[in-house]
Design goal:
The protein is built from 19 helices and 13 strands. It is of the alpha/beta class. The protein has a domain of 316 residues: ABC transporter type 1, transmembrane domain (ABC transporter transmembrane region fold, Up-down Bundle). A six-stranded mixed sheet has the order 6-7-8-3-9-13, sandwiched between helices. Strands 5-4-1-2-10 form a five-stranded antiparallel sheet. Strand 1 and strand 2 form a beta hairpin. The longest helix has 53 residues. Keywords: ATP-binding, Membrane, Nucleotide-binding, Transmembrane, Transmembrane helix. One of its GO terms (cellular component) is plasma membrane.
């Protein structure tokens, strides 16, 4: 048995099954989205539905075959024909049992494939760097949507598998009853559609209550996650009783909503089952009366009674699938759509196509491709073209931008920003360490602009080596936020990420001042930090986050208040090591820490936006007269032939003005 290999069709594929989800545009409705999800895995649901149809038809054939056997074999006292019909029944049993087994397996596999694709789509949206707006941002809400709502929505795939077999069984039973007695068949053909319509109408209450149940459950989960995240603060403020009371109220509301939803589900199923039972009991009584009057034979009566008992199952399951499953799925579809369509508050401008494809050469500007075209035109404008043989040997047209030089010695950072009433205009030379003394709103705005999540209020923005920030390849500029998150795992796991090897991670931990507290840890760098790093103190978490940023060794690194939670002695040591470990790399410090300000080569102080405008108006005529920016000898700092009044004042670490 150990050496046996499973058949290819019995193995789960190594790669996820490709599933195309329906569009999520603003015109999409929860009902249409649910239908699209149901049809998303047709390569599995269609074969599964075919096998389920065979299963239901096989079960419906059992009372028919028994009735025929009674009339022909037992009524005719023919033992040979009796054995023949018993053999037919055995084959029929084998057929519908195997059909059910493999149909259910394939259908479940399709359902799991759709669920995996849905959960992946929701997770991608929740983890999108552009962020989220709305209720999905609350802790626990995203988890509830990605788990419970996605599972309920994926359950709707069963509607494409089992109801087809149930409808086939109802139609087959109606046809058989119609051949035996047309009033009985007519009752089935009229009663079944009427019940389906009634189920859809009656499911409205369940849909509404199911949606409220999921929303309140997500709210309770969010409050619980929020409470645990701020447990230390809540304890310090002695607000534990009030926080617990709020969670209990939210939990009771969620429980009440669940009970209301289950009550509606029970009423719906109970009423549908009662209606189905009364309907089929009427058919059975009518068949018995016809048998007593001689209109039906004994075998036909057995067929009618057997079919009536069998049809209870398909008609009840239709009520379940189109009642509870459909109602729950459409309610969850609305919540899934809310997450997938939620706006991105930090939408970053699209990078060039060349960088998106993994190259380091900037994409041509509009109208400067291999064949130059005027904006909006489809024909060459003339002039030099690749066809004239003027293209460079690397395939780049002479008018194309030069490839971006990623050498850290040539990556200068130009800052031309307006942040409210303040402005910053300066150039950070390659390998320079500068500090900007900002905090509060100004610091948050500057971090958002430097990370590409927002546009400045004015000015040309941030340019790297003369190019727009959006054109920089990933990994060129890294912005480490003040409130950084740690992941569950060890200290080393949290630092050795993004391609950083172990040696670089260990060196970064030393530079960030982590060695002292790690020596006191039971497992040194292999000590678990816990969920969100909560096993560490605030200062320890901050130093590990700083080490993670330093380990990336990016050409340009922006640090926002990296040492606010450490003591002054440790801060002095970290500031000294920071200069050494970032030697030859550009570093921008957004902080008011005296230790970090003293460690910087220059301090860039924000000026007023009005001074920036006046400075630009003064410099533009000078530039036209030939006063171009040049690098001061040995500094890499831009100067002009005449000293302009810049909006930002550059100060050396010793306090002098440059």
């Amino acid at each position: 048995m150990a050496g046996r290999t499973r058949r290819p069709w019995a193995r789960v594929p190594e790669e996820p099954v490709p599933v195309e989800l329906p569009p999520t545009g603003p015109e999409q409705t929860p009902r249409r989205f649910t239908i699209g999800v149901i049809l998303a895995a047709k390569r599995y649901t269609l074969p599964a539905a075919g096998l389920i149809v065979l299963w239901q038809l096989g079960e419906a054939l059992v009372p028919v075959l028994m009735g025929v056997a009674i009339d022909r074999a037992i009524g005719g006292a023919d033992p040979v024909e009796l054995v023949l019909w018993i053999g037919v029944l055995v084959l029929n049993y084998l057929m519908f049992m195997l059909s059910f087994q493999f149909g259910s397996r394939i259908g479940l596999f399709g359902m799991q494939a759709v669920q995996h694709r849905l959960r992946t789509a929701v997770s991608e949206r929740l983890l999108d760097p552009g962020g989220l707006e709305g209720a999905a941002r609350l802790p626990g809400v995203g988890l509830s949507v990605a788990s419970s709502d996605v599972s309920r929505l994926a359950m709707a795939v069963a509607i494409a598998v089992y109801p087809l077999g149930e409808f086939a069984a109802i139609i087959f039973g109606g046809v058989v009853l119609f051949t035996l007695s047309w009033p009985l068949g007519l009752a089935v053909f009229v009663g079944a559609p009427a019940m389906i319509l009634l189920i859809d109408r009656a499911g409205g209450t369940l849909r509404r209550r199911s949606g409220r149940e999921q929303a309140l459950a997500a709210s309770a989960a969010g409050k619980a996650a929020d409470l645990m995240a701020g447990y230390r603060i809540v304890t310090g403020l002695r607000a534990g009783p009030e926080a617990a009371a709020r969670y209990r109220r939210s939990s009771r509301d969620a429980l009440q909503a669940t009970l209301h939803a289950k009550s509606a589900q029970g009423v719906l199923l109970g009423s549908m089952n009662a209606a189905t039972g009364v309907f089929l009991a009427a058919i059975t009584l009518t068949a018995g009366w016809q048998a007593l009057s001689g209109s039906l034979s004994v075998g036909a009566l057995i067929t009618v009674v057997g079919l009536a008992q069998f049809l209870v199952g398909p008609m009840t399951m239709v009520a379940t699938n189109f009642g509870t499953i459909w109602a729950s799925a459409t309610a969850s579809a609305e919540r899934v759509l809310d997450v997938l369509r939620s706006p991105k508050p930090y939408e970053r401008p699209a990078a060039s196509a060349a960088f998106a494809n993994g190259t380091t050469e900037a994409a041509p500007a509009p109208g400067h491709g291999a064949i130059g075209t005027a904006p909006g035109a489809g024909q060459p404008t003339g002039g030099d073209t690749a066809a004239d043989g003027d293209a460079d040997t690397d395939g780049r047209h002479p008018t194309d931008p030069e490839p971006l030089d990623l050498d850290p010695d040539h990556l200068h950072l130009d800052l031309d920003l307006t942040l409210g009433a303040a402005a910053l205009r300066d150039r950070v030379a390659p390998g320079e360490c500068v500090a900007v003394p900002v905090d509060g709103t100004q610091a948050a705005e500057l971090v958002a602009v430097l990370s590409g999540r927002a546009e400045p209020g004015g000015g040309e923005g941030v340019r790297l080596a003369g190019r727009a920030l959006a054109d920089a390849p990933p990994g060129t500029l890294l912005v480490a936020p003040h409130a950084a998150d740690l992941f569950d795992g060890t200290v080393l796991d949290n630092v050795a990420v993004g391609g950083a090897d172990t040696d670089r991670a260990l060196a970064a931990l030393e530079d960030a001042g982590c060695a002292e507290f790690l020596r006191a840890m039971p497992e040194d760098v292999h000590t678990a930090v816990g969920e969100g790093g909560r096993r560490l103190s605030g200062g320890q978490r901050q130093r590990v986050a700083l080490a993670r940023a330093l380990a990336q060794d990016t050409p340009v690194l922006v640090l926002h208040d990296p040492t606010t939670a450490v003591d002054s002695v440790t801060e002095q040591a970290v500031a000294a090591r920071l200069r050494t470990c970032r030697q030859g790399r550009t570093t921008v410090l957004l902080t008011r820490s005296p230790a970090l300000l003293a460690a910087a080569d220059r301090v860039l102080r924000l000026g007023s936006a009005q001074e920036t405008q006046e400075t630009q108006e003064t410099q533009e005529p000078q530039a036209a007269q030939g006063h171009e920016y040049t690098d001061a000898p040995g500094t890499g700092t831009p100067t002009t032939a005449t000293t302009p009044t810049t909006a930002s004042t550059a100060t050396t670490a010793q306090g002098g003005t440059r």
